[in-house]
Amino acid sequence: MITLILGLQFGDEGKGKIVDYLSGSTDAVIKFNGGSNAGHTVVSDEGKFKFHLVPSGALRSKEVILGNGMTIDPFLLEEEIRDLEKVNKKLNLKISSIAHVVTPMHRYLDKAEEEIRGAMKIGTTFQGIGPTYEDKYARTGLRMADLADPELVSDKIELIYAMKRTMLEKSEFASPSARKEMASRLVASGKNLRKFLSDTEVYLNELASQGKNLLFEGSHGSMLDVDFGTYPYVTSSNTTSGALTTGSGLSLRKVDRIIGVVKSYMSRVGAGPFPTEITGEKADRLRTLGSEYGTTTGRPRRVGWLDLVLLRYTLMISDVNSIALTRLDTLGNFEEIKVGYSYKVDGKETKQLPRNEGDLQKAEVNYRSFKPWGFLSDARISQFIKDGKDSLPDELKEFINFISSELGKEIDILSFGDTRNKTMFCSKLATA
Ligand code: GDP
Ligand code: IMO
Ligand code: MG
């Protein structure tokens, strides 16, 4: 069975928790896009883990793979591996030798570019991801296998410096000795990571042909996709299902099911349109209730109501089979619950996402209100999970049924907490 997990909103939907939940019987969990701009929290019996580059399935899967579509900061990756080893997680890890390398110079450029954007700034995570993908497409990028060749590393760093001199000449990297020092640190890190390098695209195709259980873990959210998201307020990689193929080398035709993770309200970090956003004191309360602060940056997340217009679009783009709905415990505690089901643009109702920025900014949202289902104790959650979907409170059933019928999709996983045991599997998961 080959499964793809994607976030269908603006990120932080709870992908990490769902991946961890589903990864118990997997042979390999694979990441294929993004880098340390992603941040996933997984709560297990051994404690709380924050994953950035290593897949969230690392606690349970037999093997983890970082695909070619990723941008990898080798120093951070070494740290993440060390942190996992501290709790005795010997990682069976493979890294694509053609994944791109984030250098300290790219991190600097991320900040410099945001400063130049001024009022048009994106609110990036400053992890150097955008500038690294820029170099990938400019064909000046450094790849993981390059780190074995000190001369090539220096040549590429000099090339990137020459291309981006205007932004870099006021930085520490203006000094040739600083660039040299960075190059030798990168080479040293490359040496430490060399044993993990592999032609992962070939390996993955072998695993697939042996019928292994593979779980692909998408980073970010679908509305942050560089093509289909709220451009230019997006990340710099594709985050929808097509990215699996280009970011891992396995064809999407081999995937059996695509599960979209949806948070029962929404959050967004950084700038950009957010039609169902809540502001003021109400937003503060929802943010506090859900501890909505970025896993990577610690920034307070913007929060809002579930937006079905946006979900119809992201479900379509990725051809999602079924939905995992998270944070039902958090939302049920809120005194008021709303779901946006259509927009009004220039006086006309539409259920389709407007694709130009201006229309999206001025869209008014039509909402349906729901009664809160209240606080759910651990004992009640366990009982629901034992007794199934029919045993849920009527208010919650109404909320779930409305979403499912508006979207025409089954909701197969319900999440009532950050731990594995607070997860309900409603039916046999839909497959392609
Ligand atoms: P990701 O980027 O999509 O993996 O999500 P993050 O890990 O950045 O943020 C989601 C947060 O919500 C994490 O702290 C999770 O532990 C937590 N979480 C996930 N699902 C649930 C849930 O159903 N209920 C509660 N209370 N927390 C959840
Ligand atoms: P996970 O995988 C939430 C957002 C940033 C910013 C924009 C561009 O944890 O869901 P970047 O650093 O990628 O150039 O920033 O994209 N962003 C995320 N927001 N969760 C994420 O990942 C994100 N990855 C990128 O906040 O608005
Ligand atoms: Mg996150």
Summarize the structure.
With 432 residues, the protein is α/β, with parallel strands linked by helices. It has helices at 15-22, 74-86, 104-117, 129-138, 150-163, 165-168, 176-193, 200-209, 243-248, 280-289, 308-318, 328-332, 357-362, 378-387, 394-407; strands at residues 2-7, 28-31, 40-44, 47-51, 63-66, 71-72, 93-96, 100-101, 197-198, 214-217, 257-263, 265-268, 277-278, 302-307, 322-326, 337-345, 348-350, 364-370, 410-415, 423-425. It has 2 domains: 2-71 and 203-431, Alpha-Beta Complex (Adenylosuccinate Synthetase, Chain A, domain 3), CATH 3.90.170.10; 100-194, Adenylosuccinate Synthetase, subunit A, domain 2 (Orthogonal Bundle).
Describe the protein:
The chain has 432 residues and is an alpha/beta fold. The protein has two domains: 2-71 and 203-431, Adenylosuccinate Synthetase, subunit A, domain 3 (Adenylosuccinate Synthetase, Chain A, domain 3), CATH 3.90.170.10; 100-194, Adenylosuccinate Synthetase, subunit A, domain 2 (Orthogonal Bundle). 35% of the residues lie in helices and 21% in strands. The protein has 15 helices and 20 strands. The strands form four sheets. It has a ten-stranded mixed β-sheet with strand order 9-7-5-2-10-1-11-15-19-20, with helices on both faces. Strands 12, 13, 14, 16, 17 and 18 form a six-stranded mixed β-sheet that branches. Strands 3-4 form a two-stranded antiparallel sheet. Strand 19 (410-415) and strand 20 (423-425) form a beta hairpin. Helix 3 (104-117) crosses helix 4 (129-138) and helix 5 (150-163) crosses helix 7. The longest helix has 18 residues, at 176-193. The protein is globular. The N and C termini lie close together (11 Å). The model has no long low-confidence stretch (mean pLDDT 95). Residues 7, 11-17, 39-41, 43, 295, 326-327, 329-330, 415-418 line the site of guanosine-5'-diphosphate.
